[in-house]
C-alpha cells in the first residue's frame, strides 16, 4: 500500500484539479492552491529550515548527527532547496504537488483531446522510463498527475455512473496494480 500511496495521491490531485477545468479557471484554481498548498508548505519549510540550521549550529548536537542537513542561511536555500531538495523529506510531496499544479495549464492543451492526450502521456512515460527517473521526483509525480487530469477530462462520466460491486472492485484492482 505504501508503494502506491504517492502515485495515487498525485493521480487524485490531478483528477481534482482538472475536474471541470477550463483555461479561464486557472487563476481561481491557483488561488485555492496558494491557500491550501503553498502557504502551509512555506510555513512548514521555514520551520524545518530554521530547525535544521539551528541544529547544525549547536556543536553539542551537530556532532551526534549522522549527516548534516546541509542548510545555509540564504534565500536560495530556503526556497530552492526547500522546493527541489525538500528541506523536510517526508513533506517533499507537497513541493512536487505545487510544481504539478503550476504545470497543469501548460499540459492541458496536450491532454484535452482524447488521442493526443493518450499519446502525450504515453510518450512522457516512455521518456521517464528511458531516463530512469526516480520514483519520487517531480517529473514522475507529474506523470501520475497528468494521468489523473486526463481521466477527469475524458473519463469523468464513467466515474460518476453506478456500477456493480465486482466491476468497481476490478477497476480499483487494475488501478492499484498499475500504480504499484
Q: What is this structure, in a nutshell?
A:
With 180 residues, this protein is mainly alpha-helical. The chain is 77% helix and 0% strand.
Distinctive features:
180 residues, mainly alpha, 77% helix, 0% strand
Query: Helical stretch count?
Result: 9
Low-confidence blocks of residues: none
N-to-C order of helices and strands: HHHHHHHHH
Helix content: over 70%
Provide the fold topology.
Blueprint: H1 2-18, H2 26-57, H3 59-62, H4 75-85, H5 92-111, H6 114-131, H7 138-154, H8 156-159, H9 165-179
Description:
With 180 residues, this protein is mainly alpha-helical. The protein is 77% helix and 0% strand. The protein is built from nine helices and no strands. It is elongated, with a radius of gyration of 19 Å. The termini are close together. The mean pLDDT is 80.
